């Protein structure tokens, strides 16, 4: 075997090189850039924005271009201090963006290979694991969301460190674990670090339990009898049934438990949804205290305490080393919608539909998206709301899955094998998100049987809020993922159940490597049975699909499932599915041949297996890598050219902001086929400056939606349905009383919005992405202008515009300046915590304008923000000398300039004292000097900055100097020193005495 190892090593790395070339050849040789989803419009400009701050010799602390300013260092996705981003300092930016992604793909391979070799797996098994993990759909497709690729790339090394600590007691492994946790956190994926920590605790608990079982055997304590195990299984089933029953009963009575509410206003949460964040940590602390605080600890408890203490030390070192970035991130996220009690933070999008598990065996069985709309997934509607696809394919190689299944071990076997098996099971079920809930299952059954509205209500409607307004519980409440978000501290701040798939595919890939070695040792029967079964099912599916061709073509005409990728192409989808089935059949048959070969010629069998998996993954997943020419990212956006021309015609008095509606695409795309719609996405989104495309081009956005938004700022811009007046309904061409989605117009005016970039076609005035009714009043069309009489030619041009461009630019006539002076104030009652109830009254008062043609409420009083500022109750006395009601005079001026993002300079000339309001967000860390002397920054209008200024001419300077960063930097230095000291200690005393260190692992350990 050793003699054959060298060629296998070469082959393993040759397979890596081949797949890198197959997947990324266009970014290497054709001057292409990654162009799909967040890779293009989010991370490309964001990382360029960070790099510009570094090149200017500044810490990247603040970004002024979005949401009236937001932290840059505190944005976890910016990964400001991640060491891997040094590549951006070495290479030209375009090449650095490509290299950054590809090097993390290579890192994922090397990390997985290292993990498997450390477990004693052969080079063939380790190579199979590394190839399948790195180039499977759920990992490879994260080039679109690179922070999750970073987390996945480091994850195998985290598993390696945990295993070495738990299984061998090596202290140096704790330093390695701390390093991995730190890299995942700094790289922008703290959820991966959080889940790795949970997995490590579970591994420690399993090892301690196994040790306790071995101790019972040594002291002649009998293991539980079979009857007890059966009773335990029955108890688990009974518990699951009770959980289901309680969930359905609560779902049935939930609408009756909710307080009465006004129309068009969000429904308050159920009480336990508010209590969980406070109660859960306390309950966990009590459980741990009771468990470890017993007077006579058992051997298993002592071992668990020692292992847990070591893991806690690693976590503490990681937190300390990353504190310079971690503390600003925590400061930011605790003020965002993710931390709000009833905010818009959604946890269920991108749940993996359970039926998609077949994609692990059959590549592209549901078609593809990238070269036309050839996907069947939209046909399989298992809930009312349209599911969002996290990754187009879950495929990691049929041969790999067939090798992994026999290696599963949930009760007996090596601790690592059991650990991986349970990780696969739990993470896979968790990734299903809402689909593990009894509520969803009941609603699905009711709809399937056509029973109307069942006892737990209807499915969640499309684009529902996190708390349904009709009083019913969400589809996913009561499921496994809901339990994770409810009972695991801080887990609710994470999003997207699909991200758990990273742990699922790592476990499957690792088990496949172990399974290959089992096969090499003669355990071939399970693999043969599975391969024959897959081959038989594939042939049946192939024949069924071939026989049903005519029915499929008649049942699903192209127009039925149109999307932004074009009309549904049933012929293309049919061909892709047929090819996927054929590929799976070839793989299953080849695996049977490899099994027959492995006993006689193991080295050759291993080489064939590696080549098979390489070819299989390359053919199946290479199409997911969507790129476009780099030149498309270098041109000036079309709308910016229009706005610049409009500014020459009518210049603004100072800085201004632009609001671009968040998500839409030209309506004509759904009816027109395209050979490269991904490229068209990039061209159109950049032309219309979809955030964040504009942040490196001088654009300041009023409101964007990204990783998280400050909760109080988000309050200004949330849309809600409103019934229009008869007059306004006629102007829109709708029926009187028909509801439209309304965005508080005054909010956009107050926050200095000069231009609106909106869809041309509304389709449905209730669509939050297309409903622009609130932006029609007091605006003028800048582009495209429909001057002159209507003619057939103009009508045809307008139709073509909507179908291919579908945008309009409007200039706001009611725009507030960036800064202004007021001398009247209203004190607001204190707002504590992150509840909606405390904010509703004050925020509605600030946003309400009785001159608005849509929002009319006779019970409310309108105040003019030009004349009055809303101040905090505790500041009212200090600001009294500046709020005596004296009218603002035309001679009083405020000029605003931004030398750079973290500094704002105001030149102010006042005749009498007043409050200077700056329409930038109020945020911790901003300091103010007036004429060089420190002055307090007051919170005005709930989220703006205010300065109390005396009469005369003054210079105000705001600087962003966050204490969280300064403190974090000191902690990071201390953490690095502590890690270095701990590593030296680990070299002198490398191993902790554990029961299995000397004689090897006991049974089950």
Automatic annotation (TrEMBL):
Query: What are the top taxonomic ranks of the organism?
Result: Bacteria, Pseudomonadati, Planctomycetota, Planctomycetia, Isosphaerales
Q: Tell me yes or no: is Oxidoreductase among this UniProt entry's keywords.
A: no
InterPro entries reported for this sequence: Uncharacterised_YfhO
Q: Which domain of life is it from?
A: Bacteria
Q: Which UniProt keywords apply?
A: Membrane, Transmembrane, Transmembrane helix
Which residues are the signal sequence here? Answer: none
Q: What is this protein called?
A: YfhO family protein
Q: Does the keyword Transmembrane helix apply?
A: yes
What sections of the protein cross the membrane? 100-120, 140-162, 169-186, 192-209, 230-254, 274-292, 304-327, 393-410, 422-441, 500-519, 531-552, 572-599, 967-987
């Amino acid at each position: 075997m050793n003699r054959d190892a060298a060629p296998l090593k070469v082959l393993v790395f040759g397979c890596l090189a081949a797949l890198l070339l197959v997947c990324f050849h266009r970014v290497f040789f054709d001057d292409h850039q990654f162009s799909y989803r967040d890779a293009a419009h989010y991370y490309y400009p964001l990382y360029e924005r960070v790099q510009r701050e570094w090149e200017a010799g500044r810490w990247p602390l603040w970004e002024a271009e979005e949401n009236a300013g937001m932290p840059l260092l505190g944005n976890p996705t910016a990964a400001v201090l991640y060491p891997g981003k040094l590549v951006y300092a070495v290479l030209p930016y375009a090449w650095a963006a490509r290299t950054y992604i590809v090097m993390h793909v290579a890192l994922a391979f090397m990390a997985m290979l290292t993990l498997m070799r450390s477990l004693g797996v052969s080079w063939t098994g380790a190579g199979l694991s590394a190839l399948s993990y790195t180039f499977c759909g759920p990992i490879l497709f994260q080039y679109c969301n690179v922070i999750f690729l970073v987390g996945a790339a480091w994850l195998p090394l985290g598993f390696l460190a945990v295993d070495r600590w738990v299984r061998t007691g090596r202290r140096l492994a704790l330093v390695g674990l701390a390093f991995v946790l730190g890299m995942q956190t700094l790289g922008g994926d703290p959820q991966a670090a959080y889940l790795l920590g949970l997995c490590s605790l579970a591994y420690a608990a399993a090892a301690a339990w196994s040790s306790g079982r071995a101790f019972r055997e040594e002291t002649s304590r009998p293991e539980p009898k079979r009857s007890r195990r059966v009773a335990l299984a029955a108890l688990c089933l009974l518990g699951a049934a009770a959980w289901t029953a309680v969930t359905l009963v609560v779902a049935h009575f939930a609408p009756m438990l909710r307080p009465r509410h006004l129309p068009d206003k969000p429904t308050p949460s159920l009480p336990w949804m508010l209590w969980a964040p406070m109660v859960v940590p306390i309950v966990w602390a009590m459980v741990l205290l009771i468990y470890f605080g017993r007077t006579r600890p058992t051997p298993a408890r002592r071992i668990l305490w020692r292992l847990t203490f070591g893991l806690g030390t690693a976590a503490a070192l990681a937190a300390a080393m990353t504190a310079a970035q971690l503390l600003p991130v925590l400061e930011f996220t605790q003020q965002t919608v993710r931390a709000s009690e009833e905010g818009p933070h959604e946890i269920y999008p991108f749940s993996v539909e359970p039926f998609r598990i077949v994609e692990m065996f059959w590549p592209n069985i549901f078609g593809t998206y990238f070269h036309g709309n050839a996907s069947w997934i939209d046909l399989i509607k298992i809930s009312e709301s349209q599911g969002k696809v996290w990754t187009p394919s879950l495929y990691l190689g049929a041969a790999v899955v067939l090798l992994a299944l026999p290696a599963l071990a949930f009760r007996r076997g090596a601790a690592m094998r059991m650990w991986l098996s349970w990780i696969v099971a739990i993470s896979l079920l968790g990734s299903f998100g809402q689909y593990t809930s009894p509520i969803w299952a009941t609603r699905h059954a009711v709809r399937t049987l056509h029973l109307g509205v069942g006892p737990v209500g209807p499915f969640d409607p499309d684009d529902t809020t996190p708390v349904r307004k009709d009083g019913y519980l969400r589809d996913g409440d009561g499921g496994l993922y809901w339990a994770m978000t409810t009972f695991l501290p801080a887990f609710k701040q994470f999003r997207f159940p699909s991200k758990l798939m990273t742990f699922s595919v790592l476990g499957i890939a690792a088990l496949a490597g172990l399974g290959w070695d089992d096969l090499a040792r003669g355990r071939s029967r399970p693999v043969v049975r599975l391969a024959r079964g897959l081959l038989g099912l594939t042939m049946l599916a192939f024949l069924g699909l071939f026989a049903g061709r005519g029915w499929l073509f008649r049942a699903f005409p192209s127009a039925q499932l149109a999307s932004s990728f074009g009309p549904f192409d049933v012929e293309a989808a049919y061909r892709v599915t047929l090819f996927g089935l054929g590929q799976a059949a070839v793989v299953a048959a080849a695996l049977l041949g490899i099994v027959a070969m492995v006993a006689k010629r193991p080295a050759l069998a291993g080489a064939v297996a590696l080549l098979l998996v390489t070819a299989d993954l390359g053919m199946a997943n290479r199409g997911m890598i969507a790129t476009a020419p780099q030149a498309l990212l270098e041109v000036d956006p079309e709308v910016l050219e229009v706005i610049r021309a409009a500014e020459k015609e009518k210049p603004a008095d100072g800085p201004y902001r632009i609001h671009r509606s968040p998500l839409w695409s030209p309506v004509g795309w759904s009816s027109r086929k395209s050979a490269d719609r991904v490229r068209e996405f990039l061209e159109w989104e950049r032309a219309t400056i979809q955030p964040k495309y504009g942040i490196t081009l001088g654009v300041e956005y009023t409101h964007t939606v990204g990783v998280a938004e400050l909760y109080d700022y988000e309050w200004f811009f949330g849309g809600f349905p409103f019934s229009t007046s008869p007059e306004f309904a006629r102007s829109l061409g709708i029926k009187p009383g028909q509801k439209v989605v309304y965005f508080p117009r005054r909010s956009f005016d107050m926050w200095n919005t000069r231009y609106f970039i909106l869809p041309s076609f509304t389709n449905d005035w209730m669509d939050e992405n297309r409903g622009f009714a609130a932006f029609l009043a007091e605006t003028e069309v800048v582009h495209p202008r429909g001057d002159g009489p209507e003619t057939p030619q103009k009508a045809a041009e307008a139709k073509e515009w909507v179908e291919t461009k579908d945008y309009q630019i409007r200039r706001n006539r009611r725009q507030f300046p960036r800064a202004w002076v007021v001398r009247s104030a209203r004190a607001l009652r204190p707002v504590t915590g992150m509840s909606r109830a405390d904010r509703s009254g004050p925020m509605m008062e600030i946003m309400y304008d009785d001159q608005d043609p849509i929002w009319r409420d006779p019970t409310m009083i309108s105040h003019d923000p030009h004349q009055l500022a809303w101040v905090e109750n505790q500041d009212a006395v200090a600001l009294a000398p500046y709020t005596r009601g004296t009218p603002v005079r035309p001679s009083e001026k405020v000029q605003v300039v931004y030398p750079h993002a973290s500094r704002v300079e105001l030149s102010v000339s006042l005749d009498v004292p007043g409050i200077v309001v700056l329409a930038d967000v109020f945020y911790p860390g901003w300091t103010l000097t007036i004429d060089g002397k420190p002055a307090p920054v007051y919170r005005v209008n709930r989220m703006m900055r205010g300065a109390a200024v005396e009469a005369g001419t003054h210079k105000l300077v705001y600087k962003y100097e966050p204490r969280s960063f300064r403190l974090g930097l000191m902690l990071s230095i201390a953490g690095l020193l502590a890690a270095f000291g701990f590593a030296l200690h680990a070299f002198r005393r490398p191993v902790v005495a554990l029961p299995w260190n000397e004689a090897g692992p006991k049974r089950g350990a």
